[in-house]
Amino acid sequence: MNNLFAAALKTNETNSFFRGEKNYFVRTPDFDQHNHGANLGGHVESFLRASNDNAEVFDEAFIKFLESLEVTKEDLTHFMANLSAFFALKNRDRLEGSTLFRSPDSNESKLVKSYLTHISNTDIYLTEKDRLYIHANFISKNGNDILLNSLKEIDKG
Predict the structure, then answer these.
(1) How far apart are the C-alpha atoms of 73 and 78, rounded to whole Å?
(2) pTM for the complete prediction?
(3) Mean pLDDT, all residues of the chain
(4) Are 139 and 148 in contact (CB under 8 A)?
(5) At what angle do helices 123-141 and 107-120 cross, to 10 degrees?
(6) How far lies 91's CA from each of 21, 63, 94, 96, 103, in Å?
(7) Which of 33, 38, 13, 36 is nearest to 23 (CA)?
(8) Segment 104-115 mean pLDDT
(9) Distance in angstroms (rounded) separating the CA atoms of residues 71 and 62
(10) DSSP code, position 105
(11) Is 156 exposed, middle or buried (0-12, 13-18, 19+ CB in 10 A)?
């Protein structure tokens, strides 16, 4: 089987990979939706195991995805699903070598905070707030409070 993440890198389509667009769509068993966890847990995990140099390549692609997010309900869904999948896998030591989110001051952590701030200034935040907190609590249980702390900061302000 071809590695879809490696294929996405070759065609400069990593953002499509993270969104499950085009041939990167992996159907969930129960719903007609993209399974973000399968892409990260399968293709990215095996890509990372293939070479010690691949972690930096993945990290850069993930940051590029975060930078590309638009303030839409659809992108918010991709954002939450990819973050939840990332932290669940990272907590199980399945994302070998990735150094993302090690610091609250990292570029990717700032991107998360910025995106949530932009979302919070729209009606999307009101309709998706409960779902955001569900993901934030899940991510927190998997060892990172970036999403939860960002949401609490937004709700305080």
Answers:
(1) 9
(2) 0.94
(3) 93
(4) yes
(5) 140
(6) 26, 19, 8, 11, 15
(7) 13
(8) 97
(9) 17
(10) T
(11) exposed
- The pLDDT tens digits of the residues spanning 120-145 come to 999 999 999 999 999 999 999 999 99
For the segment 6-35, what is each residue's pLDDT rounded down to a tens digit?
999 999 999 999 999 988 877 667 766 766
Structure tokens at 66: 């975060």
* CA distance linking residue 77 with residue 79, whole number of Å: 5
Per DSSP, helices labelled H in 2-72 are 4-10, 14-19, 36-38, 45-50, 54-68
Question: Could you tell me which residue, 34 or 148, shows the higher pLDDT?
Answer: 148
Closest CA to 84 of 29, 21, 38, 25: 38
**Interacting residues of 89 by C-beta distance below 8 A, sequence separation 6+:** 37, 40, 41, 44, 45, 95
pLDDT at 39: 77
